[in-house]
Amino acid sequence: MGYGLYVQTSNSILQLDSDQSWKYEVAIQGSGSSWRVYNDEVLFVKFPTPTSGTTVHYHRHVSADTSNYEDVQIRYTGTTTAATLDYALLKPVINSYGTTSSDISPNTSQTYGLQVYNASNVLVLDTRTFSNAQFEPSAYYEKGSLVGWGTDTGTLALANSEAKLSTGFTNYYSTNWSRAVSAGVGNSQVEGWNVANNYYRSGGSIGPYTGVYYKNLYTAPFVGTVPVSNFADVLVGGSFNA
Amino acid sequence: MTLTCDSTDSSGASTGSPSTSVSISDTSTGSGSSGGGSGSLSGSTGTYGLKIFGANGSSVVFSPSHRTFQVIAGGRVTLAASGSTTVYNIANATDPTKVSISVMSDLAGSLQVAYTRNANSTVTFTNQSSGAGVTFRYHIYRIG
Fold it and tell me: Does A179 touch chain B (CB under 8 A)?
């Protein structure tokens, strides 16, 4: 480190390094049904608790895709209806690369706090962008670690243990891996979430399932429907207000 | 993995003879990988370091016990058939508890991009199709 601020925890978790160009991401939280997500932003969503005995399938739908951003909805799979969900949109402080219109401006009426600039004299942290709650990742699933059965497909009772993302309904989930693809007659793939509450399948013989599950099913003529592993890392997170 | 497809007669019943085989490439595991890991991402129990309060003066919004989230690189990229691109200066690239990676397909497109975490602090994205180009969006973020 040449100069500036370097923050690392006692167990070597790097929190801030002003030698780098990275920017600290601040979570904007609220409820919504569509989002414009720029290249240096990540959208996390939280799913509501389903009615007991049911499961709900969601996936990410992209309605506009440009070099700088994409317009995103989280839809109920099998419909064109966008779900209204609690979200945390992680955004960098002002003047990030290529996405200046999306960034967070600090509350300049505040005259106190901490500002950090990197070696290129670019602002990478300004505590005046913080709300009274922040966001942190709490679990990760590296690519290839999940099996996409979800909760409502397949005949093997054990398969879903490999698909579970979390048990409760308080966590947020990264969305930048989910998708739905149709390519030709009968050929499709939907990668998203099954959210279940005390749900049994196969006529009530398998279950119960409660929590949020990874679902990724590929369907093709002659092949039928098969589960697929995650192509990208899936993150679970939550807000803290300690 | 290779799936053998059954032939059926006009009633839909199996003839007992395979009609064709379909090879499925599991791009999720990347080159030579047998699948990834998972786990919880805990903070630190240390009591020293940088602590920042929110505007209300009482809520802690930055402390040694919490992980931060920073996007190292992100963008929308087009690769030619069998093409690849490498992102450099990704310290701890092979550690999924410190660096997380995401790839997203282009609008309504199929995803045929695999990525590899390299020991030389780089991440490589590769178009696994030899017949078509692909446009995709990616994120590499620091989580620890």
Answer: yes
A vs B: CB pairs below 8 A: 225
Note whether A63 and A91 are within 8 A (CB): no
Q: How far is CA A116 from the centre of its chain?
A: 27
Task: Give counts: helices (H), strands (E), chain A.
Answer: 0, 18
Distance CA B34, CA A210 (A): 28
- Per the CB < 8 A criterion, the answer to whether A194 and A206 are in contact is no
Among A16, A21, A220, A25, residue whose Cα is nearest residue B90: A21
Can you give the residue ranges of every domain in chain A? 139-240
Mutation choice for A interface testing from B21, B41, B68 by most A CBs within 10 A: B68
pLDDT tens digits, A61-75 = 999 988 888 999 999
Chain A CB contacts of B45 below 8 Å: 10-11
Q: Say what the pTM is.
A: 0.85
State ipTM. 0.86
